Each structure stands twice: as structure tokens, then as C-alpha cells.
Amino acid sequence: MNNFDFIIIGGSFAGMTAALSLSNVSYDLKIAIVEKQDILSADRKRDGRAYAISAASLQLFHEIGIYDELQAEAGEISDIKITDYKSPFFLDFIGYQVDPKNGQLGQIIENYHIHNALRNQILRRKNITVFSPNSYEKIEFEENVLVKLDDERIINSKLLLACDGRFSKLRELYQIRATQKKYHQTAIVFNISHEKPHKNIAHEKFLPGGPLAILPLKDPHQSSIVWIASDKTSQVALSLDEENFTHQLWKKTEDVLGEVKVVSEKFSYPLNLVESEKFFYKKMLLIGDAAAGVHPIAGQGFNLAISGIKILCELVKNNLFCGLDISSQGLIDAYNKKAKSEAKKMLIATDILNSLFETRSFSIALARDLGLGLVNKLPSLKKFFIKSAGGF
Q1: pTM recorded for the entire structure
Q2: What tens digit of pLDDT does each residue of 11-33 get?
Q3: Which of the residues 64, 276, 304, 387 has an alpha carbon 20 to 30 A from that of 106?
Q4: Within this chain, do residues 324 and 197 fall inside the same structural domain, yes or no?
Q5: Would you state the pLDDT for residue 181?
């Protein structure tokens, strides 16, 4: 039998990030990752998605050793411009106001680059063992957690981390109730080239048909696009020929980048919210999207997962320092309280933001626009929002 301190079910972004972060807490900790896909033998391919990694999350990337590898592919965000269709009011977040040294609010990195960098770092860690491709057949919660794999091997640990995504099978298996909300929206994601350089500016444009995010990539003449529309509108958009699709996109960009051209495959993803009633079951903790999945309107999904991982690592570090069991009920309760509180704030903020900009009410639209202008004119309030955007 293989003995570990942590068994992580799910070897994608949250799972690998959690493994590396816990590996840093102490090299004496033994960590196992169980992943049904083969993540070791081949690189992940592009799926159209890019993460907006906040300045606070980039600090963790430094700590776990993937930051330098990603810089060849990372687009810096030095400024975020938020506009509301034809309104004269706007909100402008400047990176130097939160990070005087680097002048950035965060970075835009395509998902597959992050996945491959995490995997490469995992392979260098002697205290991380990867079972892949493998899945669990049976889990028993006794004094320790026993996991029987599909190849008959049995592994055990002090804590089990469920990192199996927004539609978590473990959450379902152990009947942890979750609030789910379908937005009846679809995100269309792809990369474009454009005539004018992006100057490391990210744009969030709130338009009548749904928001459009323009995210700067490493190449000053390329950006990642997240076009959010109703399910029906997105189907119509995806059915257009390339010329008409590009023309509709250009209109939505409001010509901030000049002529544009789609340079990648287009991918589409349905949008929904998931919030678990509690973030644990016995000695199992829910991590990342398995605990809470937010609307992508503020680009905070992976940053929220990283926030929860940081909370867990700090609690583990404290227990080790105090000579306490890393699977103590005190640690489990503290994780549940702190991670749930952080998730709740983000879930409420993104849900309200989506509702505010989706409404067709004239009075709400007017109040919304005045709010943008007010925040931009009040330094202390603006600084609060800038620091929030940077994850601080």
C-alpha cells in the first residue's frame, strides 16, 4: 500500500496547482495525484481559452516554479478599460497603481501553456506521485482515506482533495448539495490578430447583446477574445461565414484595434454558476470549481481556485508548525469557513455584475453608467477596485 499525506483526485489546473503548492509547504509531505486522462506523455493542445492571472496569483506562480517558463507566452495587463456601449463614462484601472515595480495588474496566458508548465514542474518534484491514466473505483473514510484505483492498487492519505471540476462526481457521490444557476449564455472564445497594437490594455466592453472581453496576448498584434451572448445569439454568430463573423466582431470591438482577423479555431462553452453548500465531507475537501464555479465576466475563476489553495496551504503550514494533525477537524472547519467566505464574495460580485449589465432597464443602465464615472473620479474607491482586480 502506498501512503501519502494528500491524495488529489483530478490532475488539471486546480489539482496540479494544489499539489505543487502543498509540495512547497514541506518537502516531507507526500502527495498523490489521480487523473483519468494521460497528462504525462503528451502536451495539452489549445482549446481557445486563456486565463487572466491576477498579480496575486502570479506570486504563487513564482513560488511553485512555473512563472519563468510562462513568460515566453504571457501577455501583460498594464491597464483595464471598462466601457458601457455608447456611454461617455468609463472605468480605467492602471497597473502601476497596484504594482509600482512591474506596472501590471496581471497576465493573460492561454490555458494549455499553464497546464503544460504545471505538468513539467510536477515531474520535477520528488514528493509528488502521479497515477495517470487512473481513476478511483472505491473510497473509504476510516482513520485515513483509502482509495482503490482501477488497476487494483490501493493508496491512502490523511486528506483527500476533490479537484474534479465544476460538475464534480465526488461532490455528487457524497451528496454535497450545490446551488446551480444556468445563465443561458454561451462564451465564444478564440484568438485574433489586429491592425493596431494592444499596448497591454485589456478591454471589457458591455454591449447590448452581451459583454466582450479583449485580452492582450504576448504578440502586441494578437489578443484573446471572450464573446458572451445568449445561447440563441451565440448559435447564430457561430453559423456565420468568416467574413460576416469578423465584421460583427469588429463592430463589437468599437474599432479600438483597427481591422481584425480570427486566427484560431473558435470554441464555445455554456455558462453557469455552481456553489457547494459546504466545502468538505469527512476528510475530503472541495477545491477550485468543485467547490465554487463563477461566471467568467470578471475573469476570476482560476484566481478563486488559487485563493482557496493558498488558504489550505496556510492552514497546513500552521498545523505542521504547531505539531497538529494536518487532517484535524479544526483545519477542515477553518478551510470550509475561509474558502467558502472568499468564494461567496466572488460568486455574488460576478452574478450581480452580469445581471447589472444584462438588464435593459433605462434607470439601472443610467445608474450603472454614473457608477462607472463616479468610481473613476474617486481615488480611494478606485484604488480599492484596482487592488481587487489584482487579487490583493
Answers
A1: 0.88
A2: 999 999 999 999 999 999 999 99
A3: 276
A4: no
A5: 85
Residue 245 backbone zone (phi > 0: left; psi -120 to 50: alpha; other: beta): alpha
Is pLDDT above 50 for 363? no
Count CB-CB contacts under 10 A for residue 360.
Answer: 7
Q: Are residues 36 and 133 in the same domain?
A: yes
Helix residue ranges, H only, 47-201: 55-64, 67-70, 111-122, 169-173
Radius of gyration of the chain (CA): 21
Transcribe 291-322 into DSSP letters: TEE--GGGS-HHHHHHHHHHHHHHHHHHHHHT
For residue 112, being part of any structural domain is answered with: no
- List b or e across 28-54, with b for residues whose CB sees 16 or more CB atoms inside 10 angstroms: ebbbbbbbbeebeeeebeeebbbbbbb
* Rounded Cα gap, residues 92 and 145, in angstroms: 49
Cα–Cα distance for residue pair 73/80, rounded to 1 Å: 20
Nearest to 217 by CA among 90, 53, 75, 15: 75
273, pLDDT greater than 90: no
226-231 mean pLDDT: 92
Q: Judge whether 243 lies within some domain.
A: yes
Residue 146 and residue 253 in one domain: no
pLDDT of residue 99: 65
Instruction: Report DSSP letters for 192-255, one per residue.
Output: EEESS--TTEEEEEE-TT--EEEEE-SSTTEEEEEEEEEHHHHHHHHHS-HHHHHHHHHHHHTT
Furthest-apart CA atoms within the chain: distance in Å: 66
User: Given this model, what pLDDT does residue 87 score?
Assistant: 55
pLDDT band at 128 (very low <50, low <70, confident <90, very high): very high
Q: Does residue 99 belong to any structural domain of this protein?
A: no
- Distances in whole angstroms, Cα of residue 32 to Cα of each of 119, 194, 284, 324: 13, 44, 14, 21
- The predicted model gives 245-268 an average pLDDT of 95
Instruction: Kindly report the CATH number assigned to the domain that includes residue 138.
Output: 3.50.50.60
Tell me the residue range of the domain where 33 lies: 1-40+125-177+277-358
For the cut 80, the answer to whether the pLDDT of residue 348 exceeds it is no
Q: Are residues 266 and 209 in the same domain?
A: yes
| Residue among 192, 215, 188, 261 at smallest CA distance from 74 | 215
In the listed set 238, 271, 304, which residue is the last one of a domain according to the structure?
Answer: 271
Cis previous bond, 208, omega within 30? no
pLDDT of the residue at 384: 41
Domain contains 91: no
